[in-house]
Amino acid sequence: MPIKVLSPEVASKIAAGEVIERPSSVVKELLENSIDAGATEITVEAQNGGVSFLRVTDNGCGLSAVEAEIAIRRHATSKITKLDDLEHISTLGFRGEALPSIAAVADVEILSKDPDSNAATYLHLENGKVTAREKKSRPRGTTITVHHLFRSFPARLKFLKSPSTEAGHLATFVGQYSLAFPEVKFQTIIDGRVNLRTSGNGDLRLAIAEIYGLEIAQKMLVVASGEAMIKIEGLCSPPSVQRSSRSYLSFFVNRRYVRNSLLSKAVEAAYGGLLMTGRHPVVILNISIPPEEVDVNVHPTKLEVKFRSNNAVFTAVQKALNNALVKAPLPAVTISPDNDARAASLWERSPVAAAGLPVLRTLGQLSASYILAEGPEGLYLIDQHAAHERVLFEKIMAQRAEKKPELQGMLEPLAIELTPEQDQVFRRSADLLHEFGFDMEPFGERTWLLRAVPAMLNNTNLKETVKELLDMLGNEQDSQKREHKVAQSLACHGAIRAGEALDTEDMRRLITQLERTSQPGTCPHGRPTMIHLSSQQLKKEFGRSG
Ligand SMILES: Nc1ncnc2c1ncn2[C@@H]1O[C@H](COP(=O)(O)OP(=O)(O)OP(=O)(O)O)[C@@H](O)[C@H]1O
Ligand SMILES: [Mg+2]
Protein backbone atom coordinates (compact mmCIF):
# COMPACT_ATOMS: atom_id res chain seq x y z
CA MET A 1 0.00 0.00 0.00
CA PRO A 2 1.23 3.56 -0.64
CA ILE A 3 1.94 5.77 2.35
CA LYS A 4 -0.80 8.35 2.78
CA VAL A 5 -1.82 10.80 5.45
CA LEU A 6 -4.97 9.55 7.16
CA SER A 7 -8.14 11.60 6.86
CA PRO A 8 -8.91 13.70 9.97
CA GLU A 9 -11.88 11.43 10.58
CA VAL A 10 -9.72 8.32 10.87
CA ALA A 11 -6.85 10.13 12.59
CA SER A 12 -9.18 11.32 15.35
CA LYS A 13 -10.08 7.72 16.18
CA ILE A 14 -6.49 6.74 17.00
CA ALA A 15 -5.77 6.34 20.73
CA ALA A 16 -3.92 9.55 21.53
CA GLY A 17 -1.19 10.11 24.07
CA GLU A 18 2.51 9.97 24.61
CA VAL A 19 4.10 7.46 22.25
CA ILE A 20 7.74 7.98 23.21
CA GLU A 21 8.33 7.76 26.95
CA ARG A 22 11.88 6.42 27.06
CA PRO A 23 14.58 4.95 24.80
CA SER A 24 12.90 1.54 24.83
CA SER A 25 9.75 3.11 23.30
CA VAL A 26 11.86 4.24 20.35
CA VAL A 27 13.29 0.76 20.00
CA LYS A 28 9.84 -0.81 20.16
CA GLU A 29 8.48 1.48 17.45
CA LEU A 30 11.44 1.02 15.14
CA LEU A 31 11.45 -2.76 15.64
CA GLU A 32 7.76 -2.91 14.82
CA ASN A 33 8.34 -0.88 11.67
CA SER A 34 11.14 -3.19 10.59
CA ILE A 35 9.00 -6.26 11.19
CA ASP A 36 6.07 -4.73 9.30
CA ALA A 37 8.52 -4.02 6.47
CA GLY A 38 9.18 -7.75 6.22
CA ALA A 39 12.76 -7.61 7.52
CA THR A 40 14.52 -10.90 8.22
CA GLU A 41 17.50 -9.26 9.91
CA ILE A 42 17.28 -6.46 12.45
CA THR A 43 20.11 -4.88 14.39
CA VAL A 44 19.62 -2.56 17.33
CA GLU A 45 22.52 -0.47 18.60
CA ALA A 46 22.44 1.77 21.64
CA GLN A 47 24.82 3.96 23.52
CA ASN A 48 24.39 5.52 26.90
CA GLY A 49 21.11 3.70 27.53
CA GLY A 50 19.88 4.77 24.10
CA VAL A 51 19.69 8.41 25.14
CA SER A 52 22.65 9.71 23.16
CA PHE A 53 22.49 7.18 20.34
CA LEU A 54 20.06 4.56 19.07
CA ARG A 55 20.08 2.87 15.71
CA VAL A 56 17.86 0.23 14.14
CA THR A 57 18.94 -1.33 10.87
CA ASP A 58 16.79 -3.68 8.82
CA ASN A 59 16.74 -5.42 5.45
CA GLY A 60 13.04 -4.82 4.88
CA CYS A 61 11.14 -3.36 1.94
CA GLY A 62 12.63 0.12 2.36
CA LEU A 63 11.23 3.48 1.30
CA SER A 64 11.56 5.46 -1.90
CA ALA A 65 12.58 9.13 -1.73
CA VAL A 66 8.98 10.25 -2.02
CA GLU A 67 7.73 7.73 0.53
CA ALA A 68 10.39 8.75 3.06
CA GLU A 69 9.21 12.37 2.92
CA ILE A 70 5.63 11.32 3.56
CA ALA A 71 6.44 8.75 6.24
CA ILE A 72 7.67 11.42 8.63
CA ARG A 73 4.40 13.33 8.60
CA ARG A 74 1.85 12.85 11.34
CA HIS A 75 -0.74 10.18 10.62
CA ALA A 76 1.05 9.08 7.48
CA THR A 77 0.82 5.32 7.18
CA SER A 78 0.81 2.61 4.56
CA LYS A 79 -1.00 0.23 6.88
CA ILE A 80 -4.58 1.50 7.03
CA THR A 81 -6.65 3.95 5.00
CA LYS A 82 -10.25 3.94 6.16
CA LEU A 83 -12.16 3.84 9.42
CA ASP A 84 -13.20 0.26 8.89
CA ASP A 85 -9.54 -0.84 8.73
CA LEU A 86 -9.19 -0.04 12.44
CA GLU A 87 -11.52 -2.98 13.15
CA HIS A 88 -9.14 -5.55 11.75
CA ILE A 89 -5.53 -4.54 12.02
CA SER A 90 -3.03 -7.16 10.95
CA THR A 91 0.15 -5.07 11.07
CA LEU A 92 1.96 -3.92 14.20
CA GLY A 93 1.77 -0.26 13.18
CA PHE A 94 -1.35 1.56 12.06
CA ARG A 95 -1.34 5.07 13.51
CA GLY A 96 1.29 6.81 11.42
CA GLU A 97 2.56 8.29 14.67
CA ALA A 98 5.87 6.65 15.43
CA LEU A 99 8.32 8.39 13.10
CA PRO A 100 6.96 11.92 13.63
CA SER A 101 6.77 11.31 17.40
CA ILE A 102 10.41 10.26 17.50
CA ALA A 103 11.45 13.16 15.27
CA ALA A 104 9.66 15.57 17.61
CA VAL A 105 11.87 14.62 20.57
CA ALA A 106 15.24 13.77 18.97
CA ASP A 107 17.46 14.29 15.94
CA VAL A 108 16.73 11.59 13.41
CA GLU A 109 18.58 10.26 10.38
CA ILE A 110 16.76 8.07 7.91
CA LEU A 111 18.64 6.07 5.33
CA SER A 112 16.46 3.82 3.23
CA LYS A 113 16.44 2.03 -0.07
CA ASP A 114 13.54 0.27 -1.73
CA PRO A 115 14.09 -2.34 -4.48
CA ASP A 116 12.88 0.04 -7.25
CA SER A 117 15.28 2.90 -6.58
CA ASN A 118 18.89 3.01 -7.70
CA ALA A 119 20.16 4.96 -4.74
CA ALA A 120 19.21 5.18 -1.10
CA THR A 121 17.49 8.22 0.33
CA TYR A 122 19.04 10.03 3.23
CA LEU A 123 17.13 12.51 5.37
CA HIS A 124 18.32 14.38 8.42
CA LEU A 125 15.66 15.78 10.73
CA GLU A 126 16.02 18.26 13.56
CA ASN A 127 13.02 19.36 15.61
CA GLY A 128 10.85 17.36 13.27
CA LYS A 129 12.04 19.30 10.19
CA VAL A 130 14.21 18.00 7.36
CA THR A 131 17.57 19.80 7.47
CA ALA A 132 19.46 17.73 4.92
CA ARG A 133 18.59 15.52 1.93
CA GLU A 134 21.09 13.35 0.10
CA LYS A 135 21.44 10.33 -2.10
CA LYS A 136 23.61 7.60 -0.68
CA SER A 137 24.24 3.97 -1.31
CA ARG A 138 23.18 1.00 0.74
CA PRO A 139 21.49 -2.34 0.09
CA ARG A 140 17.75 -2.68 0.36
CA GLY A 141 16.39 -1.82 3.78
CA THR A 142 16.20 0.98 6.30
CA THR A 143 18.47 2.41 8.95
CA ILE A 144 17.06 4.88 11.41
CA THR A 145 19.45 6.64 13.76
CA VAL A 146 18.20 8.62 16.71
CA HIS A 147 20.51 11.08 18.46
CA HIS A 148 20.12 13.00 21.69
CA LEU A 149 16.71 11.80 22.74
CA PHE A 150 14.84 14.42 24.80
CA ARG A 151 17.72 16.89 24.54
CA SER A 152 15.26 19.75 24.41
CA PHE A 153 12.99 18.14 27.01
CA PRO A 154 14.87 18.27 30.33
CA ALA A 155 11.76 17.29 32.29
CA ARG A 156 11.53 14.01 30.39
CA LEU A 157 15.26 13.40 30.66
CA LYS A 158 14.96 13.73 34.41
CA PHE A 159 12.29 11.05 34.43
CA LEU A 160 14.64 8.50 32.87
CA LYS A 161 16.56 5.97 34.95
CA SER A 162 20.30 5.26 34.76
CA PRO A 163 21.74 4.39 31.32
CA SER A 164 22.14 0.73 32.25
CA THR A 165 18.54 0.51 33.45
CA GLU A 166 17.31 2.10 30.23
CA ALA A 167 19.57 -0.26 28.27
CA GLY A 168 18.03 -3.14 30.20
CA HIS A 169 14.54 -1.99 29.20
CA LEU A 170 15.41 -1.79 25.54
CA ALA A 171 17.22 -5.13 25.66
CA THR A 172 14.00 -6.60 27.04
CA PHE A 173 12.00 -5.34 24.09
CA VAL A 174 14.38 -6.81 21.55
CA GLY A 175 14.38 -10.07 23.51
CA GLN A 176 10.60 -10.20 23.51
CA TYR A 177 10.38 -9.52 19.80
CA SER A 178 12.98 -12.19 19.14
CA LEU A 179 10.63 -14.63 20.87
CA ALA A 180 7.63 -13.38 18.89
CA PHE A 181 9.55 -13.63 15.61
CA PRO A 182 12.01 -16.51 15.86
CA GLU A 183 12.33 -16.46 12.06
CA VAL A 184 13.94 -13.02 12.23
CA LYS A 185 17.62 -12.66 13.07
CA PHE A 186 17.98 -10.10 15.84
CA GLN A 187 21.11 -8.50 17.15
CA THR A 188 21.47 -6.02 19.99
CA ILE A 189 24.68 -4.13 20.55
CA ILE A 190 24.85 -2.06 23.70
CA ASP A 191 27.81 0.29 24.16
CA GLY A 192 29.73 -1.66 21.56
CA ARG A 193 29.11 -5.06 23.15
CA VAL A 194 26.87 -7.75 21.71
CA ASN A 195 23.99 -8.19 24.12
CA LEU A 196 21.87 -10.55 22.06
CA ARG A 197 22.23 -12.43 18.82
CA THR A 198 19.57 -14.83 17.60
CA SER A 199 19.83 -17.32 14.78
CA GLY A 200 16.54 -16.42 13.11
CA ASN A 201 16.01 -20.02 12.05
CA GLY A 202 12.38 -20.00 13.16
CA ASP A 203 12.78 -22.33 16.12
CA LEU A 204 11.13 -20.83 19.21
CA ARG A 205 12.99 -23.20 21.54
CA LEU A 206 16.29 -21.96 20.16
CA ALA A 207 15.19 -18.35 20.54
CA ILE A 208 14.35 -19.09 24.17
CA ALA A 209 17.79 -20.64 24.63
CA GLU A 210 19.33 -17.36 23.40
CA ILE A 211 17.39 -15.37 25.97
CA TYR A 212 16.91 -17.64 28.99
CA GLY A 213 19.63 -20.23 28.42
CA LEU A 214 19.71 -23.79 27.18
CA GLU A 215 18.72 -25.38 30.46
CA ILE A 216 15.29 -23.77 30.56
CA ALA A 217 14.82 -24.05 26.81
CA GLN A 218 15.28 -27.81 26.89
CA LYS A 219 12.72 -28.28 29.61
CA MET A 220 9.97 -26.20 28.02
CA LEU A 221 6.74 -27.99 27.12
CA VAL A 222 4.96 -27.42 23.85
CA VAL A 223 1.67 -25.53 23.98
CA ALA A 224 -0.51 -26.00 20.93
CA SER A 225 -4.24 -25.76 20.80
CA GLY A 226 -6.19 -25.26 17.66
CA GLU A 227 -9.58 -23.96 18.76
CA ALA A 228 -11.70 -22.61 15.96
CA MET A 229 -11.47 -18.95 16.89
CA ILE A 230 -8.54 -18.72 19.28
CA LYS A 231 -5.32 -20.53 18.59
CA ILE A 232 -2.75 -20.71 21.39
CA GLU A 233 0.80 -21.67 20.58
CA GLY A 234 4.11 -21.48 22.34
CA LEU A 235 6.12 -23.07 25.11
CA CYS A 236 5.62 -23.25 28.86
CA SER A 237 7.86 -24.45 31.66
CA PRO A 238 7.16 -27.58 33.68
CA PRO A 239 6.47 -27.04 37.40
CA SER A 240 10.09 -27.87 38.19
CA VAL A 241 11.15 -24.51 36.74
CA GLN A 242 10.11 -21.73 39.07
CA ARG A 243 10.95 -18.08 38.86
CA SER A 244 10.63 -15.39 41.49
CA SER A 245 9.32 -12.78 39.09
CA ARG A 246 6.55 -12.51 36.57
CA SER A 247 8.93 -11.12 33.99
CA TYR A 248 9.28 -14.55 32.38
CA LEU A 249 5.72 -14.41 31.08
CA SER A 250 5.63 -13.27 27.46
CA PHE A 251 2.37 -12.79 25.65
CA PHE A 252 1.86 -11.98 22.02
CA VAL A 253 -1.48 -11.35 20.43
CA ASN A 254 -1.25 -11.95 16.71
CA ARG A 255 2.48 -11.66 17.36
CA ARG A 256 2.16 -8.23 18.94
CA TYR A 257 3.98 -8.05 22.28
CA VAL A 258 1.42 -7.08 24.92
CA ARG A 259 1.18 -6.76 28.66
CA ASN A 260 -2.09 -8.14 29.87
CA SER A 261 -3.21 -9.07 33.36
CA LEU A 262 -5.99 -11.31 32.09
CA LEU A 263 -3.42 -13.52 30.39
CA SER A 264 -1.22 -13.56 33.50
CA LYS A 265 -4.23 -14.66 35.53
CA ALA A 266 -5.00 -17.42 33.06
CA VAL A 267 -1.44 -18.66 33.50
CA GLU A 268 -1.79 -18.53 37.27
CA ALA A 269 -5.03 -20.46 37.04
CA ALA A 270 -3.43 -23.13 34.88
CA TYR A 271 -0.43 -23.59 37.16
CA GLY A 272 -2.73 -23.54 40.18
CA GLY A 273 -1.08 -25.38 43.06
CA LEU A 274 1.85 -26.59 40.97
CA LEU A 275 4.14 -23.76 42.04
CA MET A 276 5.13 -22.46 45.44
CA THR A 277 3.49 -19.21 46.43
CA GLY A 278 5.25 -16.22 44.96
CA ARG A 279 6.77 -18.34 42.22
CA HIS A 280 6.05 -18.02 38.52
CA PRO A 281 6.61 -20.12 35.43
CA VAL A 282 8.32 -19.28 32.16
CA VAL A 283 5.65 -18.96 29.51
CA ILE A 284 5.83 -17.74 25.93
CA LEU A 285 2.49 -17.71 24.17
CA ASN A 286 1.15 -16.35 20.94
CA ILE A 287 -2.58 -15.95 20.83
CA SER A 288 -3.87 -15.97 17.26
CA ILE A 289 -7.30 -14.45 17.16
CA PRO A 290 -9.31 -12.87 14.35
CA PRO A 291 -8.29 -9.17 14.28
CA GLU A 292 -11.87 -8.06 14.83
CA GLU A 293 -11.93 -9.97 18.14
CA VAL A 294 -9.25 -7.76 19.62
CA ASP A 295 -8.95 -3.98 19.85
CA VAL A 296 -5.32 -2.88 19.56
CA ASN A 297 -6.23 0.79 19.41
CA VAL A 298 -6.78 1.32 23.14
CA HIS A 299 -3.46 2.71 24.32
CA PRO A 300 -0.97 5.17 22.76
CA THR A 301 2.00 2.81 23.14
CA LYS A 302 -0.02 -0.19 21.86
CA LEU A 303 1.27 -2.34 24.71
CA GLU A 304 -2.26 -3.00 25.86
CA VAL A 305 -5.08 -4.63 23.96
CA LYS A 306 -8.72 -5.32 24.68
CA PHE A 307 -10.38 -8.62 23.83
CA ARG A 308 -13.96 -8.71 22.75
CA SER A 309 -14.47 -11.79 24.89
CA ASN A 310 -12.21 -11.95 27.92
CA ASN A 311 -13.82 -15.19 28.98
CA ALA A 312 -13.12 -17.00 25.77
CA VAL A 313 -9.46 -15.93 25.78
CA PHE A 314 -8.97 -16.76 29.45
CA THR A 315 -10.45 -20.24 29.02
CA ALA A 316 -8.51 -20.93 25.85
CA VAL A 317 -5.18 -19.99 27.45
CA GLN A 318 -5.86 -21.91 30.64
CA LYS A 319 -6.95 -24.99 28.71
CA ALA A 320 -3.99 -24.89 26.34
CA LEU A 321 -1.59 -24.67 29.28
CA ASN A 322 -3.39 -27.41 31.20
CA ASN A 323 -3.04 -29.71 28.22
CA ALA A 324 0.66 -28.97 27.99
CA LEU A 325 1.24 -29.39 31.72
CA VAL A 326 -0.38 -32.83 31.79
CA LYS A 327 2.63 -33.98 29.81
CA ALA A 328 5.08 -32.60 32.39
CA PRO A 329 7.23 -35.11 34.24
CA LEU A 330 5.92 -35.73 37.75
CA PRO A 331 7.56 -33.50 40.34
CA ALA A 332 9.60 -35.05 43.12
CA VAL A 333 7.64 -35.68 46.30
CA THR A 334 8.00 -32.78 48.70
CA ILE A 335 6.77 -32.56 52.20
CA SER A 336 4.20 -29.83 52.39
CA PRO A 337 2.82 -28.94 55.78
CA ASP A 338 -0.89 -28.42 55.36
CA ASN A 339 -2.26 -25.52 57.31
CA ASP A 340 -5.95 -26.14 57.33
CA ALA A 341 -8.32 -23.94 59.26
CA ARG A 342 -8.68 -26.22 62.22
CA ALA A 343 -4.98 -26.18 62.87
CA ALA A 344 -4.88 -22.42 62.61
CA SER A 345 -7.47 -22.03 65.36
CA LEU A 346 -5.44 -24.27 67.63
CA TRP A 347 -2.03 -22.88 66.86
CA GLU A 348 -2.21 -19.21 67.51
CA ARG A 349 0.43 -16.72 66.60
CA SER A 350 2.71 -16.26 69.49
CA PRO A 351 3.39 -12.94 71.21
CA VAL A 352 7.11 -13.78 71.04
CA ALA A 353 7.15 -11.92 67.74
CA ALA A 354 7.51 -8.70 69.65
CA ALA A 355 9.28 -9.79 72.78
CA GLY A 356 12.52 -11.76 73.06
CA LEU A 357 12.68 -15.51 72.95
CA PRO A 358 12.68 -17.48 76.18
CA VAL A 359 15.18 -20.28 76.68
CA LEU A 360 13.86 -23.32 74.89
CA ARG A 361 14.45 -27.04 75.17
CA THR A 362 14.44 -28.99 71.93
CA LEU A 363 12.00 -31.89 71.81
CA GLY A 364 12.30 -33.08 68.23
CA GLN A 365 11.60 -32.42 64.56
CA LEU A 366 8.26 -32.61 62.79
CA SER A 367 7.88 -33.36 59.06
CA ALA A 368 11.59 -32.63 58.70
CA SER A 369 10.52 -28.98 58.64
CA TYR A 370 9.63 -27.82 62.15
CA ILE A 371 11.44 -27.95 65.43
CA LEU A 372 9.34 -28.75 68.47
CA ALA A 373 10.57 -27.03 71.59
CA GLU A 374 9.38 -26.52 75.12
CA GLY A 375 9.67 -23.25 77.01
CA PRO A 376 8.41 -21.90 80.29
CA GLU A 377 5.26 -20.71 78.55
CA GLY A 378 4.27 -23.90 76.72
CA LEU A 379 5.04 -25.45 73.38
CA TYR A 380 6.85 -23.80 70.46
CA LEU A 381 6.81 -24.96 66.87
CA ILE A 382 9.65 -23.36 64.95
CA ASP A 383 9.86 -23.20 61.18
CA GLN A 384 13.48 -24.26 60.62
CA HIS A 385 13.84 -22.45 57.29
CA ALA A 386 12.32 -19.17 58.48
CA ALA A 387 14.33 -19.29 61.71
CA HIS A 388 17.59 -19.90 59.88
CA GLU A 389 16.74 -17.13 57.42
CA ARG A 390 16.43 -14.71 60.34
CA VAL A 391 19.77 -15.84 61.76
CA LEU A 392 21.59 -15.52 58.43
CA PHE A 393 19.96 -12.22 57.57
CA GLU A 394 21.20 -10.56 60.74
CA LYS A 395 24.62 -12.09 60.23
CA ILE A 396 24.84 -10.71 56.68
CA MET A 397 23.71 -7.26 57.76
CA ALA A 398 26.26 -7.26 60.58
CA GLN A 399 29.07 -8.27 58.19
CA ARG A 400 27.94 -5.56 55.84
CA ALA A 401 28.06 -2.93 58.54
CA GLU A 402 31.70 -3.93 59.10
CA LYS A 403 32.31 -4.15 55.35
CA LYS A 404 33.70 -7.65 55.82
CA PRO A 405 31.72 -10.10 53.78
CA GLU A 406 32.54 -13.70 54.58
CA LEU A 407 33.21 -15.23 51.20
CA GLN A 408 34.50 -18.46 49.85
CA GLY A 409 36.47 -18.92 46.66
CA MET A 410 35.30 -21.53 44.19
CA LEU A 411 37.60 -24.48 43.54
CA GLU A 412 36.58 -24.27 39.94
CA PRO A 413 35.07 -21.05 38.64
CA LEU A 414 31.50 -21.47 37.49
CA ALA A 415 30.38 -20.02 34.16
CA ILE A 416 26.95 -18.41 34.28
CA GLU A 417 25.13 -17.31 31.18
CA LEU A 418 22.82 -14.38 31.84
CA THR A 419 19.81 -13.18 29.89
CA PRO A 420 20.29 -9.85 28.07
CA GLU A 421 18.35 -8.10 30.81
CA GLN A 422 20.16 -9.85 33.67
CA ASP A 423 23.45 -8.93 32.03
CA GLN A 424 22.53 -5.26 32.12
CA VAL A 425 21.35 -5.51 35.70
CA PHE A 426 24.58 -7.26 36.64
CA ARG A 427 26.74 -4.57 35.07
CA ARG A 428 24.87 -2.01 37.11
CA SER A 429 24.89 -4.04 40.34
CA ALA A 430 28.37 -5.55 40.23
CA ASP A 431 29.69 -3.29 43.00
CA LEU A 432 26.82 -4.05 45.30
CA LEU A 433 27.14 -7.79 44.76
CA HIS A 434 30.88 -7.56 45.27
CA GLU A 435 30.28 -5.97 48.64
CA PHE A 436 28.24 -9.00 49.61
CA GLY A 437 31.02 -11.39 48.62
CA PHE A 438 30.39 -12.19 44.96
CA ASP A 439 33.37 -12.17 42.65
CA MET A 440 32.50 -12.39 38.97
CA GLU A 441 34.48 -11.60 35.88
CA PRO A 442 33.44 -11.30 32.23
CA PHE A 443 33.74 -14.42 30.11
CA GLY A 444 32.19 -13.96 26.68
CA GLU A 445 29.13 -12.10 25.50
CA ARG A 446 26.74 -12.57 28.40
CA THR A 447 28.66 -15.16 30.32
CA TRP A 448 30.39 -14.45 33.62
CA LEU A 449 32.81 -16.52 35.63
CA LEU A 450 31.86 -16.85 39.26
CA ARG A 451 35.06 -16.99 41.33
CA ALA A 452 33.82 -16.42 44.86
CA VAL A 453 30.45 -16.36 46.59
CA PRO A 454 29.17 -15.32 50.02
CA ALA A 455 30.19 -18.08 52.42
CA MET A 456 26.66 -19.01 53.40
CA LEU A 457 25.74 -20.04 49.87
CA ASN A 458 27.56 -23.25 50.53
CA ASN A 459 25.48 -25.95 49.00
CA THR A 460 23.02 -24.01 46.94
CA ASN A 461 22.36 -23.98 43.24
CA LEU A 462 24.57 -20.98 42.58
CA LYS A 463 23.46 -20.33 39.02
CA GLU A 464 19.84 -20.10 40.06
CA THR A 465 20.71 -17.97 43.04
CA VAL A 466 22.65 -15.43 41.00
CA LYS A 467 19.97 -15.28 38.31
CA GLU A 468 17.25 -14.81 40.88
CA LEU A 469 19.20 -12.07 42.59
CA LEU A 470 19.55 -10.23 39.30
CA ASP A 471 15.88 -10.60 38.42
CA MET A 472 15.01 -9.17 41.76
CA LEU A 473 17.50 -6.30 41.48
CA GLY A 474 16.15 -5.47 38.05
CA ASN A 475 12.80 -4.68 39.64
CA GLU A 476 14.15 -2.57 42.47
CA GLN A 477 15.60 0.91 42.11
CA ASP A 478 15.80 2.17 45.68
CA SER A 479 19.36 1.60 46.88
CA GLN A 480 18.50 0.79 50.47
CA LYS A 481 15.83 -1.67 49.42
CA ARG A 482 18.25 -3.24 46.96
CA GLU A 483 20.69 -3.90 49.77
CA HIS A 484 18.00 -5.27 51.99
CA LYS A 485 16.70 -7.53 49.27
CA VAL A 486 20.11 -8.95 48.45
CA ALA A 487 20.57 -9.79 52.13
CA GLN A 488 17.09 -11.34 52.26
CA SER A 489 17.72 -13.38 49.18
CA LEU A 490 21.13 -14.62 50.35
CA ALA A 491 19.62 -15.56 53.70
CA CYS A 492 16.82 -17.42 51.95
CA HIS A 493 19.17 -19.34 49.66
CA GLY A 494 21.67 -20.10 52.38
CA ALA A 495 19.12 -21.25 54.96
CA ILE A 496 18.26 -24.84 55.84
CA ARG A 497 15.34 -25.97 53.68
CA ALA A 498 12.06 -27.48 54.75
CA GLY A 499 12.39 -31.22 54.37
CA GLU A 500 15.96 -31.37 55.67
CA ALA A 501 16.42 -33.72 58.58
CA LEU A 502 18.27 -32.15 61.53
CA ASP A 503 19.86 -33.86 64.48
CA THR A 504 19.35 -32.63 68.02
CA GLU A 505 22.61 -30.74 68.01
CA ASP A 506 21.69 -28.87 64.78
CA MET A 507 18.34 -27.93 66.23
CA ARG A 508 19.78 -26.80 69.53
CA ARG A 509 22.34 -24.63 67.74
CA LEU A 510 19.71 -23.06 65.52
CA ILE A 511 17.52 -22.20 68.49
CA THR A 512 20.47 -20.68 70.36
CA GLN A 513 21.34 -18.58 67.31
CA LEU A 514 17.74 -17.50 66.91
CA GLU A 515 17.59 -16.47 70.57
CA ARG A 516 20.46 -14.06 69.90
CA THR A 517 18.80 -12.25 67.00
CA SER A 518 17.07 -8.93 67.44
CA GLN A 519 13.76 -10.11 65.99
CA PRO A 520 13.48 -13.85 66.58
CA GLY A 521 9.73 -13.91 65.93
CA THR A 522 9.81 -13.13 62.20
CA CYS A 523 11.84 -14.07 59.17
CA PRO A 524 13.34 -11.24 57.05
CA HIS A 525 10.23 -11.26 54.85
CA GLY A 526 8.06 -10.64 57.89
CA ARG A 527 6.58 -14.10 58.16
CA PRO A 528 6.47 -15.77 61.59
CA THR A 529 9.37 -18.04 62.49
CA MET A 530 7.33 -19.85 65.10
CA ILE A 531 3.96 -20.46 66.57
CA HIS A 532 3.33 -20.86 70.23
CA LEU A 533 0.81 -22.94 72.07
CA SER A 534 0.61 -21.69 75.62
CA SER A 535 0.09 -23.95 78.62
CA GLN A 536 -3.19 -22.12 79.07
CA GLN A 537 -4.37 -22.97 75.55
CA LEU A 538 -3.29 -26.58 76.00
CA LYS A 539 -5.40 -26.89 79.08
CA LYS A 540 -8.34 -25.31 77.31
CA GLU A 541 -8.03 -27.59 74.28
CA PHE A 542 -7.98 -30.66 76.51
CA GLY A 543 -10.94 -29.45 78.48
CA ARG A 544 -9.08 -29.10 81.77
CA SER A 545 -10.18 -26.27 83.96
CA GLY A 546 -7.96 -23.73 85.70
N1 LIG B 1 11.78 0.35 8.61
C1 LIG B 1 10.87 0.66 7.68
N2 LIG B 1 10.89 0.05 6.47
C2 LIG B 1 9.98 0.35 5.52
N3 LIG B 1 9.00 1.26 5.70
C3 LIG B 1 8.92 1.88 6.87
C4 LIG B 1 9.84 1.63 7.91
N4 LIG B 1 9.52 2.41 8.97
C5 LIG B 1 8.43 3.12 8.60
N5 LIG B 1 8.07 2.80 7.34
C6 LIG B 1 6.93 3.38 6.61
O1 LIG B 1 6.64 4.62 7.21
C7 LIG B 1 5.30 4.66 7.62
C8 LIG B 1 5.21 5.47 8.88
O2 LIG B 1 5.83 4.80 9.95
P1 LIG B 1 5.28 5.03 11.41
O3 LIG B 1 5.95 4.09 12.30
O4 LIG B 1 5.39 6.47 11.71
O5 LIG B 1 3.74 4.67 11.29
P2 LIG B 1 3.06 3.24 11.22
O6 LIG B 1 4.01 2.17 11.40
O7 LIG B 1 2.23 3.21 10.00
O8 LIG B 1 2.06 3.32 12.48
P3 LIG B 1 2.47 3.40 14.02
O9 LIG B 1 2.52 4.84 14.40
O10 LIG B 1 1.37 2.68 14.70
O11 LIG B 1 3.79 2.77 14.15
C9 LIG B 1 4.86 3.23 7.77
O12 LIG B 1 3.46 3.10 7.56
C10 LIG B 1 5.68 2.54 6.70
O13 LIG B 1 5.03 2.58 5.47
MG1 LIG C 1 5.26 2.17 13.04
Compact overview of the structure:
With about 550 residues, the chain is an alpha+beta fold.
Kindly describe this structure.
This protein has about 550 residues and is α+β, with helices and mostly antiparallel strands. It has an 8-stranded mixed beta sheet, covered by helices on one side. A 5-stranded mixed beta sheet has the order 11-12-15-13-14, sandwiched between helices. A 4-stranded antiparallel beta sheet has the order 18-19-20-24. Mean pLDDT is about 90; it is low at about 330-340 and about 340-355. Adenosine-5'-triphosphate binds near residues 61, 76 and 142.
Low-pLDDT parts are 330-340, 342-354
Query: Could you say which overall geometry the principal axes of the C-alpha atoms support?
Result: elongated
Structural class: alpha+beta
Number of helices: 17
Strand arrangement, major sheet: 7-6-5-8-3-2-9-10
Instruction: Find the count of extended strands (DSSP E, 2+ residues).
Output: 24
Taking all Cα atoms into account, the compactness measure Rg is 28 Å
Largest sheet: 8 strands, mixed
Average predicted confidence as pLDDT: 90
Quaternary status = single chain
Question: How is this fold's topology laid out?
Answer:
Blueprint: E1 4-5, H1 8-11, H2 23-36, E2 41-47, E3 53-58, H3 65-71, E4 76-77, H4 98-105, E5 107-113, E6 120-126, E7 129-136, E8 141-147, H5 154-159, H6 163-180, E9 185-190, E10 193-197, H7 204-212, H8 214-219, E11 221-226, E12 231-236, E13 249-253, E14 256-258, H9 261-271, E15 283-288, E16 294-295, E17 306-307, H10 310-326, H11 341-346, E18 361-366, E19 370-375, E20 378-383, H12 384-401, E21 407-417, H13 420-435, E22 439-442, E23 447-454, H14 462-474, H15 479-494, H16 504-516, E24 530-534, H17 535-541
Helix pairs in contact: 2-6, 6-7, 6-13, 9-10, 12-15, 12-16, 13-14, 14-15
The protein binds adenosine-5'-triphosphate (ATP) and magnesium ion.
